[in-house]
Amino acid sequence: MTVKTTGAVLAAGAVIALGVARKVSRRGTGTTEPSRWLAVTVNAPPEMVQQRLRDAMAELDVETRVAPAPGGRGTEIAARLRNAATGPARRLAGSDPRQDVRRRLREVKSLVEADEVVLPDESTTGRPTPGGALVRLATRRAGGEGRL
């Protein structure tokens, strides 16, 4: 690589890094994140959902609400942490307390709709492969993060 090419690549990298840093800084420090509601729609009437939701969220410091889903399509259940310090660093480290709230909302939905917590199928191969490692990583990560 020539000196000009190397300089151009470094300059492009610096511009991209600056853009990413600006975007991240606009998001803020995450101080308003604990008040964000996490919600899921369950295909069941509110009476069936309320007791399971209370049981699932009993030991967490969360606010919950149960309301009819828009369009008469079941029940919308939502939960949010009352007092939890979250932020980008905790999320990246995998210690975000909202992960537990997300997981429990998924479990309540699964228990109400299927009467059991539905888990992904186990691997059908006994030999670990690079592709399988990616699937295992995604499956482990999906339990705490992602869309509800």
Low-confidence stretches: none
Helix/strand order, N-terminal first: HEHEEHHH
Mean pLDDT: 78
Number of strands: 3
Overall geometric form: extended
Strand order of the largest sheet: 1-3-2
Helix content: 40-55%
CATH architecture annotation name of the largest domain: 2-Layer Sandwich
**CA gyration radius, whole angstroms:** 21 Å
Number of helices: 5
Q: How many structural domains does the protein architecture include?
A: 2
CATH class of the largest domain: Alpha Beta
CATH topology of the largest domain, anyone?
Alpha-Beta Plaits
* CA-CA gap between termini: 47 Å
| Strand portion | 5-15%
Helix and strand topology:
Elements (H helix, E strand, L loop, with lengths): L2 H24 L11 E5 L3 H11 L5 E7 L6 E7 L6 H6 L4 H17 L15 H13 L6
Antiparallel strand pairs: 1-3, 2-3
Structure characteristics:
13% strand, Alpha-Beta Plaits, extended, alpha+beta, three-stranded antiparallel β-sheet, 148 residues
Task: Outline the structure in words.
The chain is 48% helix and 13% strand. It has 148 residues and is an alpha+beta fold. The chain folds into two domains: 1-30; 31-119, Alpha-Beta Plaits (2-Layer Sandwich). It has a three-stranded antiparallel beta sheet, covered by helices on one side. Helix 2 (46-56) packs across helix 4.
